[in-house]
Amino acid sequence: MPGEDLVELKFRLYDGSDVGPFQYSPTATVAMLKERLVSEWPNDKKIVPKAASDIKLINAGKILENGKTVAQCKAPFDDLPKSVITMHVVVQLSPTKARPEKKIEDEESPQRSLCSCTIM
After folding, report:
1. Do 85 and 10 form a contact (C-beta atoms < 8 A)?
2. Which residues neighbour 62 within 8 Å (Cβ) at sequence distance 6 or greater?
3. What is the value of pTM for the model shown?
4. φ and ψ at 25, to 5 degrees?
5. Strands 7-12 and 84-91
6. 12, 44 Cβ separation under 8 angstroms
7. DSSP class of 19
8. Domain-embedded: residue 74
9. Lesser CB count within 10 Å: N end or C end of the chain?
10. Tens of pLDDT, residues 63-113
11. How many Å apart are CA 2 and CA 28, to the nearest integer?
């Protein structure tokens, strides 16, 4: 890392609070940022990611891909000297496996169709 300019990043959570700032090498990947964010996640939050896959990072309106480096993700206006880059964090928890419901088949009862809606 000697001779390498570190990039200072902070992460804005869903409630407006920040985690960081932390300094990263421009060669650090988005996956590495997510792993650190999970380990540094504040204990007082209602929504807590269990793994890095539960987090999406957004910078300059773009969802960042895990394999990209910090240098590849920087927006052109982030090249200001000594500026802290804010990345927005979206937590999407992995759905838990629901227990299969026992089906009771009764020949006399009419079949009911079940539907459900999910609003995202």
Report:
1. yes
2. 73
3. 0.69
4. -75, 145
5. parallel
6. no
7. E
8. yes
9. C
10. 999 999 988 887 665 555 667 888 999 998 777 654 555 554 555 555 566
11. 15
